[in-house]
Amino acid sequence: MKAIEISRPGGPEVLRTVERAAPVPQAGEMLIAVRASGVNRPDVLQRKGAYPPPPGASDLPGLEVAGTVAGGDPAELAAAGFRLGDRVCALVAGGGYAEQCTAPIGQCLSVPTGLTDVEAAALPETFFTVWQNVFEIAKLQPGETLLVQGGSSGIGVTAIQLAKAFGATVIVTAGSDDKCAACVRLGADHAINYRTQDFAAEARRLTGGRGVDVVLDMVAGDYVEREVQCLADDGRLAIIAVQGGTRSAFDAGLVLRKRLAITGSTLRPRSVAYKTRLAQALRERVWPLLEAGRVKPVIHAVFPAADAAAAHALMESSTHVGKIVLTW
User: Fold this and answer.
1) Which residue among 77, 112, 293, 299 is least crowded, i.e. fewest CB within 10 A of its CB?
2) Dihedral over Cα of 44, 308, 112, 173: its sign
3) For residues 26 and 299, what is the distance between their CA atoms, to the nearest angstrom?
């Protein structure tokens, strides 16, 4: 099979097309003939040598794929409602940049009716992450207000749509007026250009001084101090990445007085059982929204897999709105 390999840590140019033996599905796994692979920031970090795959995972980058079931134990597949040839998308711990990929059956979901392979490949990583952090960890409730840092990212456009679908008010930050406008078109109630406005002051103003109930943060660093300031009483801060750095200084007294909860999580190294539970929740709560057209994957650009370096360069430019996908 053809695959995209990281030849050495470095820039996008270190990605190269290679021939590799196809993976063999083990017990509890299916083999997927990949039609499309999602591109995510963790892939960029892995390419730079800053985010190694967990033990036992493929060294190839790629955390989400869509395609057709090409192998696996027939009884195990049938028990999960799958058979050869079914269209699926899957969350994987690595190996997604390839023509064939294995995935734990529990982390595989049928492609929602009406979606293309490209659209399906844009679902797993962001939808698993948003559901885990916004709804299961931070427990966003109808009528509450969510602040999404980086609303135009793949995570951001997913968080906007899911939060709105479940009855929340959504405020986002983005790095340009055009990106802010794109977020509003996707359903955000308010968008703050963080380059020209103080997001904490704006969030307090937009909520009448009350503050927001949940913050989904991909930045960390000095953002945490301002996030603590703009959270309402009993607010929850969910940190899922540290693009702004790992060091934060904030007023711990505010955390006490407001009864705040600050959480952090990574999804890639979690157990198959944990990810299977997330997949079941998505199948029950979110897949019907996708099939009804109430929530849609947002695709910014599609590249042939051989142009993965260009896809990574686009990702690092941060000029995209939504997802970047490779096709095979």
Assistant:
1) 293
2) positive
3) 32
